[in-house]
Write a structure and sequence with these properties.
CATH architecture of the largest domain: 3-Layer(aba) Sandwich
Protein name: Flavodoxin reductase
Keywords: 2Fe-2S, FAD, Flavoprotein, Iron, Iron-sulfur, Metal-binding, Oxidoreductase
Radius of gyration: 21 Å
Cofactor: FAD
Pfam family, one: NAD_binding_1
Oligomer: single chain
Shape: globular
Helix content: 10-25%
Order of helices and strands: EEEEEHEEHEHEHEHEEEHEHEE
Length: 355
């Protein structure tokens, strides 16, 4: 199941599968090594975008990184088999040690706060395979960020479905003063603790928080309904929205309903990408990403629906209107961040730096 690098290989890296581990039925982790021997940079909590080229075109899918760069672990991703998932079925069913995969690199904003911020305690809320990026974050926080402490709530239907349960328990034992873990199972005879409902979450925070609310930071990853419920509970409890970070952890790549931008005229877009500067013209119904690709410019992207953040850019001049966004916070947008896959230039020409 080796994937060859396309002729234009400036934006692709080849990875060799060095180890495959079944974590639970239907979920495997893949340890990867760059074929050129040069480390592939990434941050804890990010994802890796893999590329498959076929006669039908290019398919891209992103998988969360479970390894920690601070521990110099082999680059490792977690993959859950999706019944109708082309890429996940290929990996789970057919991939073997020694096979080669193609990546455009790591991306994502689900990362630890920069040093020197006000945050002192991090709460992680994970359900099912949503633990994959959080596992990377936890290991990095505990080993490399001594100023931070962590609380983990990990929900599953029953214990056998909990990924990384042993290493998570080992981390709690190794760092008893800085990590507290709560495993919750739907089949628990204690119904008050079977699911992380609103009241239980708020009681947990009340008893486990060591610092004021504005010094707490929350990370949520799991099914859509779980993340919506947890976000609602946190906001109701008084946690500010900028203190809540979510990783959209689903494979639903259906495009959101079409929304017409307030300006459908053609505008010039200047793109700074990979040390080069390119100029294109973008006009509705094509977004900036589509316009750039039609002009033959290789751009980072994955979901093309405003859900993953692979196409992240910083707006240097002008205004970019987004038709959909599940990634960027209001603070991100105020700081000039935009997604090219759902972004349209409005009100005039635009200049952007592709990140």
């Amino acid at each position: 199941m080796t994937h060859p690098i396309p002729d234009d290989n400036r934006y692709y890296r080849s990875l060799i599968i060095r180890h495959i581990q079944e974590e639970i039925p239907g979920v495997k982790t893949f340890a990867l090594e760059p074929e050129d021997g040069q480390p592939l940079p990434y941050k804890a909590g990010q994802y890796l975008t893999l590329v498959h080229h076929s006669t039908q075109g290019e398919v891209r899918r992103s998988y969360s990184i479970t390894s920690s760069p601070a521990l110099q672990e082999p680059l490792t991703i977690g993959v859950k088999r999706i019944e109708n998932g082309l890429f996940s079925r290929m990996l789970i069913d057919n991939a073997r040690v020694g096979d080669k995969l193609i990546t455009t690199g790591a991306a994502g904003l689900f990362t630890l706060p920069e040093e020197g911020t006000v945050y002192k305690q991090i709460f992680f809320l994970a359900a099912g395979s949503g633990i994959t990026p959080i596992f990377s974050l936890l290991k990095t926080l505990l080993h490399a960020r001594p100023e931070l402490s962590a609380v983990l709530f990990y929900s599953n239907s029953y214990p056998e479905k909990a990924m990384f349960s042993e290493p998570l328990q080992q981390l709690s034992t190794q760092f008893p003063e800085r990590m507290h873990t709560e495993f919750l199972y739907s089949n628990s005879p204690d119904l008050s603790r079977a699911r992380l409902h609103k009241d239980l979450l708020q009681r947990f925070i009340s008893s486990l928080a060591k610092v004021p609310h504005d010094e707490l930071l929350f990370y949520i990853c799991g099914p859509d309904n779980y993340m919506r419920l947890m976000s609602f509970a946190l906001r109701q409890y008084g946690i500010p929205e900028p203190n809540i970070r979510k990783e959209i952890f689903n494979t639903d790549i259906r495009k959101p309903a079409k929304v017409i931008p307030p300006d459908t005229a053609a505008h010039k877009v200047t793109l700074h990408i990979g040390g080069n500067t390119q100029q294109i013209v973008s006009r509705y119904p094509n977004n900036i990403l589509q316009s750039a690709r039609q002009a033959g410019i290789a751009m980072p992207y994955s979901c093309e629906t405003g859900k993953c953040g692979s196409c992240l850019a910083r707006v240097l001049k002008g205004k970019v209107w987004m038709s959909y966004n599940e990634v960027l916070t209001e603070r991100d947008i105020e700081n000039g961040m935009a997604l090219t896959c759902v972004g349209f230039p409005v009100g005039g020409d635009v200049e952007m730096e592709i990140l």
